[in-house]
Amino acid sequence: MQTWHLRDGRQSFVLASTDKALPTIVYWGASLGASENLEELVAAHRGDVTGGMLDVLPPLSISPESATGFAGQPGIEARTSEGLQILPRFRFQHEIASTSDDLQLLCRDDANGLTLKLAFHLDEQTSVITANSELESQEDIVLNWLAAPAFPCPAHTDHMLEFSGRWCSEFQTKKLRFATGARERTNRTGRTDHTHFPGLIVLSDGTNNSSGEAFGFHYGWSGGHTMIAEETADGRRQLQFGHAKGTQNKSCSFSSAPLYATFSASGLNEIAVAFQQHARTRIVANTRSPRPVHYNCWEAVYFDHNISELKDIASRAASLGAERFVLDDGWFGRRDDDTSSLGDWQIDPRKYPDGLTPLISHVRSLGMEFGLWFEPEMVNENSDLFREHPDWILGPADQPRGRQQLVLDLRQQEVEDHLYKGISEILRANQISYVKWDHNRVLPIADASQTEAVYSLFDRLREAFPLVEFESCASGGGRIDFGILQHTQRVWLSDSNDAIERQKIQHNAALFLPASVTGSHVGPRCCHTSGRTIDIRLRAWTAAQRHMGFEMDPRELTEEEANILSQTTSWWKDNRDWMMSADILRLDTSDPAEIAELHRSASGDRFVVFSALLSPSDQIVPTPLRLTGLDADARYCVSLKNRADVVSLSRGDCALKTADLSLSGQYLMQHGLNLPWRFPESMWVVEGQRL
């Protein structure tokens, strides 16, 4: 018997191989002591059998095998080049590496000429496990499915929290109960997609944000993928993530994407903090600090570019506190609407007769950096590029169009080279420090090599322009994952600038994403995607909860609105140094109309609470808002930052309306804060400082 124990202060991860069989995860949960007898643990893990079953319980290994009698989803589905089904039966060979935080194993199936490498790394600082599978074959095979290492889901975790959504309403959650059979979600859109964020949280009944057991998973891949959460007939449960199911090209070497996993014994927030910290410190590289206040001109001008108006808008944005100006779609080719010019990455001389230099010079004179929008992976039929290279299209010629456009086949090296050359020429010729990289339609086919080619293009540009930051946008949140974040420094969470919708989206996305990479903008008074009119206070404070920016026409602001926005922006600048490395903790609220979260500094010496009331409350008086993640023995000075927003219908003597309070962490977490009464569609902002 061979055993391995990866552990940190929070969790233990124990694997075992008996008689050289593929290893099985025999324990995953709260940290075990170093003296734990692993052989006894393996013995205790064995299940019984009874009538109507095989005489032995087939192993639920890290790559389950049908050849062992396992009747659930196998980790590998493959055929020979002649079409014959392959039923792998691997034997453990040796360790490639084995430490307390790193394990790499090599297994072979000599009969089928297959080698399987399985790797697990437990990050002791973030408490996130990174796992991946690599398959090699001596002969060409057709691979239909290769899962990252399969993880067991304990029997007491009887629910799963799924993530779905749509355009302008990303990161919706749905809580489902495990049942016999497989819950399969396959994304065939070729990108991460609004509907199929590759994440899942398995949790116990009663688990909330701050208590209960949970196991979090995220598949770090930006293309099509499949998630399978299965309960077999014998009651065991497994979770698998991998690239989209479907025939892959013949090859001899295959690899899964990384699967990130973490355990929490104290609720969803511990999952969230682990993923947030891992993304911030291990995934995203070369992020500008301090994070600049962002201005994007899209919802101010759309395709109607006039350099005099843009200069005026830039000046107004700078006066409000913006530090980065991004010129969005419409600057290239003959791009007057979305029917033409994608692929023609040359500056439009009609709109910019002297190029972008006059606008860039003006922006930089205001103390702002300059950013530019691209959509490199797409092409319009009404473009010089398409007329010259109709053979560069991904998928059939008669496919449905999406937003009047087709997709370029980046699997062709000459296509990638052409895009690299065109983008590089623009970046070299202009003082550009930021690129908004958009992706406005689903792909006609889900091919892993298309995703790999996108990564390759990003890598080439990042190497050539190391000081340029890149944002991933795909009609908003259509391509957000740790895979794309290894190549970018920011994501556009949603095309919706509706602050009410944003509150919901941001709140759930915080289970995986830190504030530092999550763009959030103050939109127009009347939201262009929902038609809803929202007060500047809620719009501004909602944006201040993440990487703050503006995306409206500043010329529409009244003097009062401009003052409120300037003050909120100034507050964000004063606090961004600690907030961009803070942990975002979701608060459990008794009022379903309220969404609240606490941002806790890395040192734990300060926090800020954002409490939004999104609709009329059924409660006549607000119930106390219980905080979380504080030092129970410490005392905190607690202050209502926006006391000026108290309305006349708040008639009582709620202390926070007039005074700062000195309260213990124990009181704040056990009893909670009494907040003033307020109108719906408003926000309270509460600051806390350890005394």
UniProtKB/TrEMBL annotation:
Catalytic activity: Hydrolysis of terminal, non-reducing alpha-D-galactose residues in alpha-D-galactosides, including galactose oligosaccharides, galactomannans and galactolipids
Enzyme Commission number, as recorded: 3.2.1.22
Segments forming domain Glycosyl hydrolase family 36 N-terminal: 22-242
Record keyword rRNA-binding present: no
SUPFAM superfamilies recorded: (Trans)glycosidases
Superkingdom of origin organism: Bacteria
All copies of domain Glycosyl hydrolase family 36 C-terminal, residue ranges: 601-677
Pfam families for this protein: Glyco_hydro_36C, Glyco_hydro_36N, Melibiase
Enzyme class: hydrolase
Sequence similarity: Belongs to the glycosyl hydrolase.
Record's protein name: Alpha-galactosidase
Species the sequence originates in: Roseibium polysiphoniae
